[in-house]
């Protein structure tokens, strides 16, 4: 499957910790021609059920933080409009695809590129492939923090760091190598089996 490789939306969600989790923060950042653009979207979202303490320990968000935020239903149309037709990118992107599909049943991404798979394929032998470790390994963490004023487990920071990682991994490749790498990291590729 040929994937249009000029424009992507990098996405990250933070969840409520419920079962199934609801979105409490969503960030999207456009990457075009292997450069981060100023085109980004960021929402705090009020879940139907409260944020679990275990989730708060990870991302720091409480019910009070999202008390005045819109519901997912309030922003769903906007999210779909922005994501429509473009491949999405994320670190362990299966999580984003699953939670977004639950929240946006009419949306299906054209491709879902996993920077975790991409990093393992292009940079084998690292001790850890967590987003935080890769950000430190390649000197991208400080840049993500400067761009967002946030830290790890903020959706805006994680989206920015995943976008920087995506660009870092693909930039040295030729166009053909890039196409192959992106195709191989697409979790929706039927050759890899259905992950949805």
Question: In a few lines, what is going on in this structure?
Answer:
The chain has helices at 53-59, 72-83, 94-103, 115-122, 131-137, 141-148, 155-170, 175-184; strands at 7-15, 23-32, 35-44, 88-90, 112-114.
Description:
This protein is α/β, with parallel strands linked by helices and 196 residues long. The protein has eight helices and five strands; from the N terminus they run E-E-E-H-H-E-H-E-H-H-H-H-H. It has a five-stranded mixed β-sheet, sandwiched between helices. Helix 5 (131-137) crosses helix 7 (155-170) and helix 6 (141-148) packs across helix 7 (155-170). The chain is globular, with a radius of gyration of 16 Å. The two termini are 18 Å apart. The mean pLDDT is 92.
Calculate the terminal CA-CA distance, rounded to whole Å: 18 Å
β content, as a range?
A: 15-25%
Helix and strand element order: EEEHHEHEHHHHH
Regions with little confidence, pLDDT below 50 for 5+ residues? none
Described by strand count, sense and barrel closure, the largest sheet is: 5 strands, mixed
């Amino acid at each position: 499957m040929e994937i249009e490789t000029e424009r992507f939306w990098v996405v990250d969600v933070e969840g409520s910790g419920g079962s199934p989790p609801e979105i409490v923060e969503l960030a999207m950042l456009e990457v075009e021609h292997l450069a981060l653009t100023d085109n980004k979207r960021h929402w705090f979202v009020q879940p139907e059920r409260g944020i679990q303490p275990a989730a708060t320990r990870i991302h720091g968000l409480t019910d009070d933080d999202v008390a005045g935020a819109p519901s997912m239903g309030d922003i769903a149309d906007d999210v779909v409009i922005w994501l429509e037709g473009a491949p999405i990118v994320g670190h362990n992107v299966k999580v984003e695809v699953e939670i977004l599909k639950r929240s946006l049943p009419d949306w299906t991404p054209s491709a879902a590129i996993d920077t975790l798979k991409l990093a393992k394929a292009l940079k084998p032998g690292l001790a850890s492939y967590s987003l935080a470790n890769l950000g430190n390994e390649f000197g991208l963490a400080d840049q993500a923090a400067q761009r967002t004023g946030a830290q790890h487990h903020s959706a805006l920071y994680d989206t920015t760091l995943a976008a920087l990682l995506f660009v870092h991994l693909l930039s040295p490749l030729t166009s053909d190598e890039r196409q192959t790498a992106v195709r191989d990291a697409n979790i929706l590729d039927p050759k890899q089996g259905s992950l949805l």
